[in-house]
Amino acid sequence: MRFVRYDDDRLGLLTDDAGVVDLTDHLDLSSTDPLVEYMAGDFDASEYEDADPDHDVGDVTLESPVRRPGKVIAAPLNYEAHIEEAISDKEITTDEWFSIEDKGYFLKAPSSVIGPEENIVIPFNDRRIDHEVELGFVMGETTKDVDNDTAWENIFGYTVLLDISVRGDQDRSNRKSYDTFTVIGPAVVTPDEIDDPQNLDLSLAVNGETRQVANTSDMVYTCADVVQYASIGATLDVGDVITTGTPEGVGPLADGDVVDAKIEDVGSLSIDVEERDVSFASVDVQKHGQE
């Protein structure tokens, strides 16, 4: 099944003919984060997979499938070719190469999450802002100290995710948590719709120019590996979003760009980029404590 959130927090099921079945009405959902309500409750949407759609997908506004995840957990440098790219381009990271096992994951602010029909907003006109296409997924069970098999079982579904990044010396969580810097959608796709999440083609283009092309088989740590590691230190809650790192080909975005991202069997999105007329150099960082 392919779940979407649309039109001010309604939960829908995408049909094969580009329709949307309104699950909010059918299942009597009431939450402003209806996919989390669905996952946490005793609901079953499978009987509506063949129902007549209530809307055409082109007539609704698609929002991020999860409105406000409790956590967004991200795996850094999880493709070998991107590791080599980062080592050679110190604008990407000033760190030496490291693994998730060495230094762990990082967190992104839940407030950075937007849907595919909003705009990416570049916060500064004098900093490099890069695109990163990633396979993301949503946790469907409370998860703590699990093994690899249980980690796979606790993933509710997969989604396209753009991890937008300011390059520089600041901590990753700072540089990747600006508003609009986590694009999720258009749908969350359940595992039964995907033959193998570790063998999916993914790509990203900017203004029609292909920049990133890879396959999830190139990951260093699998989806379940990331869940297993993350669950050692933190309880993963229903609705938490985890993203698995980007392949090689990251590059800068500019005002007016159009970003197209696609992951095999999962979906595709197209999103516009706009830039604020603000320079990082002019930002007034105030300090009133001890010198």
UniProtKB/TrEMBL annotation:
GO molecular function: hydrolase activity; metal ion binding
Coiled-coil ranges per UniProt: none
InterPro entries named among the record's database cross-references: Fumarylacetoacetase-like_C (IPR011234), Fumarylacetoacetase_C_sf (IPR036663)
Keywords: Hydrolase, Metal-binding
Keyword Flavoprotein annotated: no
Domain Fumarylacetoacetase-like C-terminal: 71-273
Name recorded for this polypeptide: Fumarylacetoacetate hydrolase family protein
Higher taxonomy: Archaea, Methanobacteriati, Methanobacteriota, Stenosarchaea group, Halobacteria
